[in-house]
Design a protein that fits this description.
By secondary structure, this protein is mainly α. Helix content is 47%, strand content 7%. The chain has 8 helices and 5 strands; from the N terminus they run E-H-H-H-E-E-H-E-E-H-H-H-H. A hairpin with a 2-residue loop joins strand 2 and strand 3. The protein is elongated.
């Protein structure tokens, strides 16, 4: 599970500086503190990652003193401290290293994880559907890279494969599901006409 810009914004409940890019549905769930800049004011979130803002220089203090006073690292403001997308492990390490764990709502995290798992299951099912079509074609002795033309006035190979697969289990819930899987195979070049 990777964390991207939208995931970071959602999980940490942050309004980025360019909040016009944020969908309205997300804005409604952001806390008032974040809207008022109360969330880690030394951080800037951009589409490609999380950046640390350099604090203002005061009274001739050096980097180490400023970092200690403001409890923020002094880094190159043009290099992301966390680049998107990042692994979930890097996200966790970043939150822990900079004491940002309290920014993440546990219920938001749980919902996000459920969505990621559901998305992963959907992708696995799609892959199984596509493989079932390719296997059925091979079982008929047909090269997926050279699909025969339909005989004039008769149903073609797609219909034959569809009828055989729709009768087997719940892999394809409907003819439309089969058609979408067929089109994915065509779109990525795994099915081609002769």
């Amino acid at each position: 599970m990777d964390i991207d810009y939208e995931d970071f914004i959602r999980l940490c409940r942050v309004i980025p500086e360019m909040n016009a890019e944020l969908p309205e549905s997300m804005k409604a769930s952001i806390t008032e503190a974040a809207l008022n800049g109360g969330w880690a004011p030394w951080i800037t979130i951009r589409r490609d990652g999380v950046y640390f803002r350099p604090p203002e220089r005061q009274n001739g203090l050096g980097d180490a003193e400023i970092a200690a006073i403001y409890d923020c690292p002094i880094t190159d403001p043009e290099t992301p401290a966390l680049r998107f997308p990042c692994s979930f492990e890097k996200f966790e390490k970043f939150l822990e290293e900079y004491s940002l764990y309290p920014s993440v709502d546990p219920f938001d995290m749980l919902q996000w994880q459920r969505e990621q798992q559901s998305r992963s299951l959907d992708l696995n099912k799609q892959a199984r559907q596509e493989q079932a079509i390719l296997t059925a074609l091979s079982g008929e002795g047909i090269d997926p890279q050279s699909l025969p033309k339909n005989p004039h006035g008769k149903p073609g190979i797609k219909r034959k494969i569809k009828q055989s697969l729709l009768g087997e289990g719940k892999l394809f819930g409907s003819a439309m599901t089969f058609d979408k899987a067929w089109e994915r195979l065509r779109a990525d070049g795994r099915l081609k006409d002769a």
